[in-house]
Here is the input.
Amino acid sequence: MEDILIAKQPIINKFHQVYGYEILSRTNKKENSSNVTHSVDSDERLLFNLLSTFGMNELLGGKRAFLNCILENNSLDYFSLVSSKNISLEIQRISNDNEAEIILTSDKIKILKSMGYQISVGEFCFLPKYKSWIEHAEVIKIDTLKYDVDLSLAMVMRAKAINKMVVLEKIETPEVFNLFSKYEVDFFQGYHFCKPIIIGAKIAHPSAITLIKLINLVIQESDASKIEGLLKLDPILSFKLLRYISSCNISDGVKVNDFKSAINFLGYKNLLKWLSILFTMTEKNTVPNNMTKTALIRAKFIENVASEIKQSNQEIEESSFLVGFFSLLDSMFGIPLDMAIDSINISEDIRGAILYEKGLMSELLKMSLLMETNRVKEAEQIAESIGYKKEEMHSSYALALKLVSNISF
Here is the structure.
């Protein structure tokens, strides 16, 4: 079991009616703080937990969620998994105000706005470099602790002159609230009204083996009944999937009566993204996306070869994917490989292939590692030794690369 903490702080109007909540990462309940470095990954984890662990409807009661969002080096893939209804993305300032990155981010903001997300920006958007951002923003948030009253009011007036909603942050005292509430301020946020409210959950992680098997089935676009069969074996995974669909309103209010319906509502592409993100979160340490991709390339390559060579059988074909995927568990979770392998219930054939270089699957894993490090001649020698043509080996590796390159994490 893992303790997950998040916090919500209300954003209210001058009549103290709640418009929405800013959602914040937390790691320390007593100090109401977080030691998580703000990044694209931390944003993704926060949103994932909001949707799949806590449930957006249950946590916010239909109110809007304000989420800090870094768009530098952000592919935007995850946002296609999320219903934009009632979500405001507060786009963070570009490091060093890099002009090229500001322009790139402006294009991303356009895309997010076209998807239905409300766009919020800080008062930095009044800087000339950020002119293109302010055009797409609906909300401007102003930190009242950074500026004196006159400058804060000047920014409020400027925002209202271009028809933007204004949120004043860091309202700490009743005096400050009474002062600003006389003006055209739409919403307020700060300790005067409420400190961030911490909500915790103890979560059990789904089976890593089930997740990997599901990822493989979805990559191959297998029949929905096979995917449903695996989902039924893991109640934690099933619950997270259904809560996610409910939070995102993916089914448009239609009741999900079975897992096939859930799969159809979500679609294979989005299901693959969701499973891949969930896999990276099955341990307290986040698994780097490039490492997950490397493991998937190994897994798909070994599986491709196993399905084609004469020495193989159905059992080896089914196990070969897991050999490739589990071969990086030590790097993924920062523990010795034998300890990682011993912590999961897998067959002796898979264990022997990974830890002791036993059997045919071990040779396939070696071949994959050699291809990975561009030691092609040595890989061709192994292929020849097991009766596999080198041309077919190259074709299988190219296919694995192509399949995995289409996956977004």
